[in-house]
Amino acid sequence: MLERFRQFWTNIWAPLGDLFLRWGISPNTVTFVGTVGVSAGALVFFPQGKLLIGVLVITAFVFSDMIDGYMARKSGQVSTFGAFWDSTLDRIGDAAIFGGLAMFYVGPGDNSWYAALAIYCLSMGSVTSYARAKAESLGMQAKVGIAERADRLVAILVITGLADIVNKLGVGKDALQAIPVTLGALAVANTVTVIQRVLVVREQAIVIDAARAASEN
Hints:
single chain; mainly alpha; Four Helix Bundle (Hemerythrin (Met), subunit A); 8 helices
């Protein structure tokens, strides 16, 4: 759903990408620094209960995912390794965000059930991405589902930041209940997406296997 806004944000950050290129910074370096920033924001601040600060730090770096792609296209540095590098580091950043929330609930959040929910979102998010990657490696497509990566990240970051703002404004810690509610919604959405991708791949696999069997007879 949010992919439709990718070009808009790419245009916003294009001048920064042009500046990096003039400085001789490579797209792969931007990808790496962005992932380090996202991971640090999540794993340093979330476990301390500094949710809003963590969200702000993550947000400052998460747009590198658009800048690096723009830089690669603009400079003609699009490469197979670059695509692999970007996808791999995306998984690290995603894991840091949900892992940081799990650490928050193990620590100051003090709720093992919510920690488990965050870990489930981390795990199923990885499975969602893996299912698509594996399907494509086998010559099939699995770009379906109700929970795209951008949607998942925006949902959890926006709600986490807003919940902590409301909490700090004096409403109290009850405002933070919006976070596990969002985690629950994402857990369901991730699970549905994985099922959708499995079913789509199964249909394609049946056709491929039937065609192979027919050619062997």
